[in-house]
Specification:
Number of domains: 2
CATH topology of the largest domain: pyruvate-formate lyase- activating enzyme
Distance between the termini: 47 Å
Structural class: alpha/beta
Strand content: 15-25%
Number of strands: 15
Bound molecules: iron/sulfur cluster
Radius of gyration: 23 Å
Number of helices: 14
Strand order of the largest sheet: 4-5-7-8-9-10-11-15
CATH class of the largest domain: Alpha Beta
Helix content: 25-40%
Shape: globular
CATH architecture of the largest domain: Alpha-Beta Horseshoe
Length: 443
């Protein structure tokens, strides 16, 4: 459908504005395509008759971006060439996590991860390489679509732990990231990894003991509680049946009470964690979205109800829990969707059991837009207005972000959630102030 629309728009622009030069025509094609795809206008009847390009462009931007047109200068509207290719489309399969090939560093032949993979997938093809460094580091969209068939098992030597880079000009939540795992097979249409990953496969590091040691050494002399987590460049538990990272992490960090360790997940791959005694400094937090958005925009994640039941089970067992409303997607009807979702969460969970909640509206590097619109041509997540904002990322306009945060915070307050446990992820300090959040986290 969107491919047909794209072709129709190109033909129409050629017919109505034959005088435009190539680059100007490209901008007009993108604007008109987006206006029609997002349903702002039903057909080509709105096309203005201007001969002057600047007037034409302004007029089309005002139609495509009615909320942001008066809020942002013209150079904040991102108008790269639209180039949709059929062969780049993502196609959903029923066996999403079917691993066809393992590529392991030779020295890791007898590692726990390799033997767990062989036990679970006896038919898997195994290749050995000297070092992951030799793997080609460049990836197009077609390669990205195939990445989850291949697992790399490697030994990490340098990149163990780092402070979350957050984003420039944002208020940081003082988080540390344990770089365990890279890549994820769950195919969320909004995933930032699509614009970030540069090799075809998913990496699992076998030397978990080095990660644990580095972290403990790093925080040895820090007495205040420090929040550390996996789940920045992958889902923390998606391969936990193979890696058993959770077992090693819980066993070790439950002895270090100044480390608040967070597993961020959407999966139900949680069996391992119930074989250990729970500890309150070990937290599991689920990324949640209303079911309609999950069905539309996440291809291999469990439904909302299953995630919240898992969260409750983990909390009842004795671990800490939290959740992330990130990315908040302002698709059609979003207010009703988020209200219903928050009602459902608190019908199952007491607010006193929630250790933290993060809120973050949808955002990504501009280049990623071309990947999303090509892989997921019928997406609904790009229909809302997104402009290049303070940190160079595409975001909803400030006014819409503020409206979303205020709306959700108000719903949380009505449920008697302690707002001191709520924080904004990657947001300007002015936004924290304007929505009434203190920049000090009390988790
Ligand atoms: S679960 Fe997270 S890491 Fe995995 S595809 Fe979705 S957004 Fe990306």
């Amino acid at each position: 459908m969107s491919l047909d629309l794209f072709e129709a728009v190109k033909r129409k622009i050629e017919e109505v504005y034959p005088f435009l030069k190539v680059n100007k025509k490209r901008e007009v094609v993108r604007l008109v395509y987006e206006i029609l795809k997002s349903g702002i206008k039903p057909d080509f009847l709105f096309l203005p008759k201007y001969k002057n390009y600047e007037q034409l462009k302004k007029n089309l931007i005002a139609v495509r971006y009615p909320k942001s047109f008066n809020e942002y200068p013209l150079n904040r509207f991102y108008l790269p060439e639209l180039n949709l290719k059929k062969e780049d489309s993502f196609t959903e399969k029923s066996d999403f996590i079917k691993i066809e090939e393992v590529v392991a560093e030779k020295s890791l032949k007898d590692s726990k991860i390799v033997s767990n993979i062989i036990k679970k997938y006896p038919d898997v093809k195994i290749d050995y390489i000297e070092n992951f460094k030799s793997v080609k580091k460049s990836l197009d969209i077609a390669g990205y679509n195939k990445r989850s068939k291949r697992l790399y098992v490697i030994k990490e030597n340098f990149d163990f732990l780092k402070r979350c880079p957050c984003t420039k000009k944002c208020l940081s939540c003082d988080y540390f990231v344990l770089n365990l795992g890279f890549g994820c097979p769950m195919e969320c249409e909004y995933c930032f990894l699509q614009g970030y990953q540069n090799f075809e496969g998913i990496v699992l590091q076998s030397n978990i003991e080095d990660y644990l040691k580095k972290t403990i050494d790093f925080f040895r002399n820090i007495k205040k509680p420090i929040r550390v987590g996996t789940g920045e460049f992958t889902d923390s538990l998606v391969y936990d049946d193979i890696t058993e990272y959770s077992v090693d992490i819980i066993k070790e960090f439950s002895k270090h009470k100044n480390i608040i360790f967070e597993f961020k997940t959407k999966t139900l791959n949680i069996d391992n964690i119930f074989n250990l005694p729970p500890a309150s400094n070990i937290a599991f937090s689920y990324s949640l979205n209303p079911d309609k958005i999950i069905k539309n925009s996440e291809h291999y994640t469990p439904p909302f109800k299953e995630r919240i039941s898992a969260l409750k089970k983990i909390s009842d067992y004795g671990y800490s829990v939290g959740f992330h409303l990130d990315p908040i997607i302002c698709a059609q009807g979003w207010k009703d969707l988020y209200r219903d979702m928050i009602n459902e969460i608190f019908s199952l969970m007491s607010p006193s059991k929630i250790r933290w909640i993060s809120l973050g509206t949808f955002r990504f590097k501009p280049d990623t837009k071309k990947v999303i619109e090509n892989r997921f041509k019928e997406n609904i997540i790009l229909d809302e207005e997104m402009i290049i904002d303070f940190d160079g990322k595409l975001r909803y306009p400030y006014s819409l972000r503020k409206e979303a945060y205020l709306y959700i915070l108000n719903l949380l307050k009505r449920k008697k959630m302690d707002i001191n446990k709520v924080y904004l992820c990657m947001e300007e300090s002015d936004m924290w102030k304007e929505v009434g959040l203190a920049p000090i986290l009390k988790w």
